[in-house]
From TrEMBL:
InterPro entries: DegT/StrS_aminotransferase, Kynureninase, PyrdxlP-dep_Trfase, PyrdxlP-dep_Trfase_major, PyrdxlP-dep_Trfase_small
Binding, pyridoxal 5'-phosphate: T101, T102, F129, P130, S131, D132, D209, H212, Y234, W263, T291
UniProt KW keywords: Hydrolase, Pyridine nucleotide biosynthesis, Pyridoxal phosphate
Record gene name: kynU
Gene3D superfamilies: Aspartate Aminotransferase, domain 1, Type I PLP-dependent aspartate aminotransferase-like (Major domain)
Species in which this protein is naturally found: Oceanobacillus jeddahense
Record pathway: Amino-acid degradation; L-kynurenine degradation; L-alanine and anthranilate from L-kynurenine: step 1/1; Cofactor biosynthesis; NAD(+) biosynthesis; quinolinate from L-kynurenine: step 2/3
Name of the protein this chain belongs to: Kynureninase
């Protein structure tokens, strides 16, 4: 029996890891322990290759690249949507790769927010990512309402949301609900199935922001009857900086006119008829707006292959093992240094990252970077550490905690100021 808090034990877990071969698919830097895959996933060799392939198709085909070559650009958003549909548990025509997270949220809210009679408010939460809240507020403004029409469910401890409190806030004046699947700070998973059922029992449409769950945990959006969802592709999906986002619309809403239309909302056969009356696509493709960002979609062609080969269930299972191991090591090695573990510890609610709080968090993160551990800092006192199933090893987790312990023992962080960087 090997003692669990040793490098030898981490190595043993790595030997037994079914996904260990995928680490070689990524560009990793020697000595560097990358724990920031929930902000920007690492570049895979496949993603790199498909970008080069796309560039070659432009060079070779010019305008005919829209319909010729291995990945005709005109159908790329649909074909990538199909490839991504398994990750969210949707039918292939319910997902389209398009836009950015925030633009997709604007699109979906302008489509599904239909204030009527007493039902005029939007329900969200107080812990969501700021961009979502900004978008919801401006959507309300466009309909002539002020911020008081945005109801944000509070958190008791500042880290977690209580699903019962959210359900209690689903009152008769709510027209639409937008919530995260996994909270970006604490990593709490919300029970999307339960919340969707509760919303529908009250006649309210509901959508989820999957930025922190896509590629980390499985979803069953279709079976849960979620109305809509949207997500970015540069975090756990490893699509690269600014890679094209995606959205899901349940098939029961096919035929609903897009709130923000453009010629790429069209049925593809009719798009080039150039009529001034839009004939929207009969599927999620109707929620596209303009010409797709083909160069920024290219890495996804390669990046998604890895998810197909590994399988999201195996990814989730390794991810849970990695975070459980990290929690165990943190509790054992760092107990004297004032860290508080603020992510849910139980598996049902624990997303893909660990969230620690410490009063010196900003400068501890700077010291970690100096020691080649890449975390991210969240104001005022949060440290996120994401051990990612496809490329992080158990030894990475071990190294991360050891280097953090060293920083605390030697007070290395004291040489930095406790302020955040411009991008943290
Ligand atoms: C990362 C993230 C975003 C980012 O939105 P962009 O439009 O891609 O910049 C939005 N919402 C959540 C919850 C996120 O985690």
């Amino acid at each position: 029996m090997v003692e669990t808090h040793t490098k030898a034990y981490a190595a043993k877990l790595d030997t037994a890891d079914e996904l260990k071969a995928f680490r070689n698919e990524f560009h990793l830097k020697n000595e560097c322990v990358y724990m920031d895959g929930n902000s920007l996933g690492l570049m895979s060799k496949r993603a790199e290759q498909t970008v080069y392939d796309l560039m070659a198709s432009w060079k070779e085909h010019a305008i005919d690249g829209w319909t010729d070559g291995n990945q005709p650009w005109y159908y790329l958003s649909e074909s990538l949507g199909e490839k991504m549909s398994g990750l969210v548990g949707a039918k292939k025509e319910e997902v389209i790769v398009t836009g950015s997270t925030t633009v997709n949220l604007h699109q979906l809210v302008s489509t599904f927010y239909e204030p009527e009679g007493k039902r005029t408010k939007i329900l969200a939460d107080s812990l969501n990512f700021p961009s979502d809240i900004y978008a919801l507020k401006t959507q309300l403004k466009l309909q002539g309402y002020d911020d008081s029409h945005l109801i944000q469910v509070d958190s008791e401890d500042g880290h977690m949301l209580d699903e019962e409190a959210i359900i209690n806030a689903m009152t008769e004046d709510i027209a639409l609900i937008v919530l995260p699947s996994v909270l970006y700070r604490s990593g709490q998973i919300l029970d999307m199935e339960k919340l969707t059922r509760a919303a529908h029992e009250r006649g309210i449409k509901i959508g989820f922001d999957l930025c922190h769950s896509i590629g980390a945990i499985p979803h069953q959006l279709h079976d849960w009857e979620v109305d809509f969802a949207f997500w970015c592709t540069y975090k756990h999906l490893n699509g690269g900086p600014g890679s094209v986002a995606a959205l899901y619309v349940n098939e029961k809403h096919f035929g609903t006119a897009p709130g923000l239309a453009g010629w790429f909302s069209s049925n593809k056969e009719q798009q080039f008829d150039m009529e001034h009356t839009l004939t929207p696509a009969e599927h999620a493709g109707a929620f596209q707006i303009g010409t797709p960002h083909v160069l920024s979609a290219a890495p996804l062609i390669g990046a998604l292959e890895l998810f197909h080969e590994a399988g999201i269930e195996k990814i989730r299972s390794k991810s849970l093992q990695l975070t459980a191991y990290m929690i165990e090591l943190i509790e054992h090695e760092l107990k004297d240094f004032g860290f508080v573990i603020c992510n849910p510890v139980n598996e049902k609610q624990r997303g893909g990252h660990i969230y620690l709080e410490h009063p010196e968090a900003a400068r501890i993160c700077k010291a970690l970077k100096m020691k080649q551990v890449i975390p991210d800092f969240r104001k005022p006192s949060g440290i996120r550490l994401a051990p990612v199933a496809l490329y992080n090893s158990f030894e990475d987790v071990y190294e991360c905690v050891q280097r953090l312990k060293q920083i605390m023992e030697d007070k290395v962080y004291e040489q930095f100021s406790n302020e955040r960087e411009v991008v943290s």
